[in-house]
Design goal:
Elements lengths: L15 H18 L13 E6 L5 H12 L3 E6 L11 H9 L5 E6 L4 H8 L3 E7 L5 H15 L6 E5 L6 H12 L3 E5 L9 H5 L2 E3 L2 H7 L2 E4 L15 H8 L3 H5 L6 E3 L12 H4 L6 H20 L4
Parallel strand pairs: 1-2, 1-3, 3-4, 5-6, 5-8, 6-7, 8-9
Helix pairs in contact: 1-5, 1-12, 2-12, 5-6, 5-12
Length: 308
């Protein structure tokens, strides 16, 4: 089976069959990662450039490790240490890199739509590693993989996405994916951090009371408050946010049921999640990190082997 697309620009562009194929391929690669020798020759002689115009730790390391596990040749690019700092345009930068015979580009950029722009101008497979407040498709895929691994299903699963919905590319990609795979989605948080008309536009429920959202859901995917993307105060203080929307052990115990807790990272401990939740038995946060490598291996493998 092959993906229906040459690039991974966003979940919005994928068919449910594409998502299923990526998740089933990731299962096979996760088995590979449990072996004593964790490397396979699947992408030998394939050259991949990691093009990061925005800071990243987990995503970048996960992609780099996935590429090494697949035996690809990897080139790492950081905008702050390149000619971009001297005024070179993004397209010139990429064309210079492609002249070195690069096959794939993994790209993170602060501007929404940057990977889509590249895909129209260069002849290489593009993987969106996060663009502005638009999408973060591989995070949504690893979240879905982790949910399905823990609960056994996506169809009919009740997922609450809690926190800064307004500025989160993770939220948007998760909503697209969960809707395509038959899950039910509620978004929860302060009214100032939830876009207007999101119910009609994206087919989700909206809840402003975090306890009610947790009582409804099977899985809570808790998002980081993205202060760096807020150009004006949208709530009174981090302490007030924590008191109203933070999740602690006492709140989880009051639900009278077990739920799964997730977070894409980095965590603002004591704000979105207390440490006794982030590190507690309900949390699968470290599983998400582990699964990220397998999912990104699957994406790179399927794109590299797509018959054009």
């Amino acid at each position: 089976m092959k993906l229906s697309t040459q690039h991974l620009l966003g979940i919005k562009d994928l068919q449910p069959e594409d998502i299923s194929l990526i998740l089933s391929t990731a299962e096979q690669f996760k088995d590979v990662l449990q072996r004593p020798v964790k490397k396979v020759p699947s992408l030998r002689d394939v050259t991949i450039v990691n093009l990061f115009f925005e800071n990243s730790t987990r995503t970048r390391m996960s992609f780099e490790l996935a590429e090494r596990r697949l035996s690809a040749d990897t080139l790492n690019f950081t905008a702050s240490a390149s000619s971009v700092a001297k005024g070179e345009t993004m397209l010139d930068t990429v064309n210079n890199i492609l002249s070195m015979k690069v096959d794939m580009v993994v790209m993170r950029h602060s501007a929404s739509g940057a990977p889509h722009f590249l895909a129209k101008h260069i002849n290489a497979a593009i993987v969106n590693a996060g663009d502005g407040i638009n999408e973060h498709p591989t995070q949504a895929l690893l979240d879905a993989f982790s949910m399905r691994e823990k609960t056994g299903r996506l169809q009919g699963l009740k997922v609450a996405i809690i926190g800064d919905i307004m500025h989160s590319r993770v939220a948007l990609s998760n909503i697209y994916l969960l809707n395509k795979m038959g899950a039910e989605v509620t978004v929860a948080g302060p009214p100032t951090l939830i876009p207007k008309y999101i119910e009609q536009a994206l087919n989700v429920r909206v809840e402003y009371n975090v306890k009610k959202a947790l009582q409804w859901c099977d899985v809570a995917n808790v998002l980081r408050i993205q202060l760096e993307r807020q150009n004006q105060p949208l709530f009174s203080s981090l302490r007030e946010y924590s008191l109203a929307y933070g999740i602690n052990r006492r709140l989880l115990e009051s639900l009278g049921k077990e739920i799964v807790v997730m977070h894409p990272g980095p965590i603002n401990r004591g704000v979105e999640l207390d440490s006794d939740v982030a590190d507690g038995p309900s949390s699968i946060i470290l599983n998400q990190v582990e699964n990220g490598v397998a999912v990104r291996m699957a994406v790179l493998y399927l794109l590299a082997n797509r018959e054009n």
